[in-house]
Structures are given as structure tokens and as C-alpha cells.
Amino acid sequence: MNSQYDIAVIGGGNAALCAAMTAAEAGARVLILETAPKPYRGGNSRHTRNFRCMHSGPLGPLVEDYSEEEYFSDLLKVTGGKTDEHLARLAIRTSEECLPWMEAHGVRFQPSLSGTLSLARTNAFFMGGGKSLVNAYYRAAERLGVDVIYDANVTHLELEGDRITHVEYTHDGQDHQIEPRAVIVASGGFQADTDWLTRAWGDPARNFLIRGTPYNRGAVLADLLAQGVSQVGDPTQCHAVAIDGRAPKFDGGIVTRLDCVPFSIVVNKHAERFYDEGEDVWPKRYAIWGRLVANQPDQVGYVIIDAKSLELFMPSVFPPLKADTLEDLAVQMDLPPDKLRATVENFNTACGDTSAFHPTELDGVATRGIAPPKTNWARPITEPPFYGYSLRTGVTFTYLGLKVDENAQCSTANGPIRNLWAAGETMAGSILGQGYLAGFGMTIGTVFGRIAGREASNHVA
Residue 314 sits in a domain of what CATH number? Predict the structure, then answer.
């Protein structure tokens, strides 16, 4: 271990690793402080599986093209316009050069997954998933001379005037202090701190599941905000998806996500539908369902499908409940049987011609005369056996974070902090005001991680 480091990177996921490798390649002596133990290193990145990438033609595993304007339009749809256009376009435009950079640092790609994702043109899938990406980056970082301390709980960054003077952390039951010349914060959001989540959301948050790492508790974020570092984002906004209600409280990961919603109806505990299940293709709408479920009684929803839809989506990690009748399925799901039967029959009556049904693109097969409507993939639920899943809100990461500029630099009301940068989920609220676009978190982390590493190494040089 070096006795003196040029740069301390706080966090151990994609953004942190991109920053550390970029800085090390520029000649900086870099230390990564990762809160998690080594087997759980990587934060939420180990649960990812793809990277959303602009490209002007076929690129790696990506087919056709995906322009900056189309990418930005997709982002506007999911965020409702709540984004910093300059930073968003920077992330989008830079993503094209990131894919070959990722390959050069050990990431391998594969063709896109089948099912409802429909991402062959927009998202590059990691061979071996996020865990493989994280391991490849750690190997590359080691070759570059980056040091890593696991189980390192950063407790305080001392801000004096316009610079960070030292970093305090605990390791093996002892307190430590280092004085790096620059600091990059890439330690995620606060979602694993259930008390903080509850202060933001109220008591319903105690029913949320945290699909990502249990180590993102926002300690560094809280410390910096308390010292007046500029913040961005709404504490109630987050990447929240509807996941299998049987998932664990923490760390269930991406496999607990359910992709069956477009081919289903979704009801609450009173067996009432509450939103359009076919509003758009799943990668552009899956992230709204966590908040939708959060607004239902007991923060729970229920998916109902029939036999003809069972093979149309990616298999679930837990098998669905199964019954020969809707009434039996309702009993298994603790729903009112008569009400579920009535809801399904009302939906079935509203379905029209289904000959144009197409599971992987918007098909316009819609209901008529019911509210809420189902605007695509609306087929009657008539073919037994019937299947069901329970849904809970699964929070991936929160959007309250550190405000950064185009150089990933943090600031206070008095101006920039000369030696503090942020990347990844801890600053994603600068771009994501609400909603989420599949694979975009990895884009933000990769782009701004590399920017932060470049700028921090320039500072120390």
C-alpha cells in the first residue's frame, strides 16, 4: 500500500472503477475505499446486465443505429422532461466511445436477451452480467496499480473552504485518516438506509424491498450535504421497479424483476386494475411500476395472466402461482374471488380484435370502454391454467445526490470544490429527475466515472 495517495475513490462499483482506472492510466496513485466485503464488491453494478449506448451504425453487439436525438427523446419520455439537457446529452453523446473503451478494459458483450426487453438496437448486454463486468474492471485496476481496501466504511470528508483536506474511515475496528490530493465520490444513493427512506416517503417505505446492495446507505452523501455541498434531486424520486413480492429484503438483484406486466392485468388487493399495463414497451415503462405499486394499499399489486402469455416474457426466478380457475387463483393470492372474476370479465369484454398482436413492439391491440385502458397487447385472459405473481416496490437507487457540472465537479454555494468530484448513482439525480430508462444508470456511471477520473488526475498533475 502506498503511504500517500493522489486520489481516493469512495465506492467500488462501475462508476468508481471507471474513475479509478482512468486516473491510474494518467499516472495517479489511486486508492479505492469499498464499504462492502470483497465477495459483495461492486455495489449495484454487479446486478446490472446492459449498457444503453448511442451509435451511428452497428457497434459491437448492437444492430442498426441509435441516434442522439432518439436516445434523448426516450429519456424525455420517462423523465417527463425532468432532466438537465446539457448533462444528459453529454452522457448520451459520450456513450458511443465508451463501448470500445469497456472492451479494452476486459468487458465482453453478447447478443441481447430475448423476451420483452426489445433492446438489440439500444443496449449492449454484458457476457456474464454485471458481476463479470465488475470482476473484469477489478482485474484491470489491479494491473494498473490501483489499491483497494474492502470493509472500509468512510465516515467523514473534511471540507475546509473550497477543498477536501482529509478522509476518515473505519477498517477492522480501527479509525483511519488519509489526506489524498483529490477525492471522487461514487458510493451510490441512500436506499439501503430504511429510516432515511421512510423519512422521505413516510411509513409505506417500510414495505419496500431494496433490490440492490445493502451497503449503499448514503453515509458519505449525508456527510457532504451536512457541510453544504450542493445537492440535486427529489428524495422521494428513485429507480423503483415492481419486483416479485417473494424477493428478499435486500440484494435480490435484477432476477427478481418481473417482465410479465405488458401481457397481464395488474390489480391491487381489492382486485381492481389501477394503470395501463400496455402503455409502452417494457424498457421504457418498467421503472414506473415500483411507484405505482407503492401508491396502492399495503404497497402491493398482483399480476394475472393466462396460459397463452406464459412464454412471452423472461422466466421468473420464482415460479408463478397456478390454478385452473380464476377463483382458485384468487384464493391462493388472498384476493376477493368474485371481484377478481368480475374485473377479468370486464377486461375481457373490452378487448377487441387481437389479430395484430405482436409481443415485442407496440401493436395497438387495445381495450375500449374501460378505465384505465390497456393500449397495447390487450388480449382476453381466458385460457387456463391461470397464473399470478405478487408485486412489491423494489428500490434500486435514490435520486437525491450531489450536484455536478459537466466535469463531474462538486460545489457549494460559494463555488466549485477544487478537489471533489462525483460519479454514478450518487450524482445521477443531476440527469434523472424521475423515471428510468433501461441501462441508463450504467451509461451515467461509465461516462461520469471516466470524466471524474480524468479531471481528478489533471488536478493532481
Answer: 3.90.700.10
Which cell numbers hold the place of 315? 422466466
Give the count of beta carbons closer than 10 Å to the beta carbon of residue 88: 21
Query: Residue 115's domain spans which residues?
Result: 7-194+399-460
Number of domains in the chain: 2
Cα(437)–Cα(292) distance, integer angstroms: 16
Give the integer Cα–Cα distance in Å for 11 and 43.
8
For residue 367, the cross-strand partners are 351
409-443 pLDDT, tens digit per residue, is 999 999 999 999 999 999 999 999 998 999 999 99
Residues of the chain below pLDDT 50: none
The last residue of one of the domains, among 343, 374, 394, is 394
Identify whether 211 is part of a domain: no
54 and 71 in contact (C-beta within 8 Å)? yes
* DSSP classification of residue 76: H
Question: For a pLDDT cut of 90, what percent of the chain falls above it?
Answer: 93
CA distance 296 to 298: 6
Calculate helix-pair angle for 129-143, 14-25, nearest 10 degrees.
20
Buried b (16+ CB within 10 A) or exposed e, 242-270: bbbbebeebbbbbbbbbbbbbbbbbbbbe
Q: How many residues does the chain have?
A: 461
- Per the CB < 8 A criterion, the answer to whether 123 and 74 are in contact is no
Same-domain status, 250 and 305: yes
- CA nearest to 51, candidates 114, 116, 103, 7: 103
CA angle 176, 177, 183 (to 5 degrees): 125
Final residue belonging to a domain, choices 372, 394, 416 = 394
How high is the pLDDT of residue 117?
66
pLDDT of 178: 97
**Phi/psi of residue 237, nearest 5 degrees:** -90, 140
Helices (H), 6-64: 14-25
295 and 362: one domain?
yes
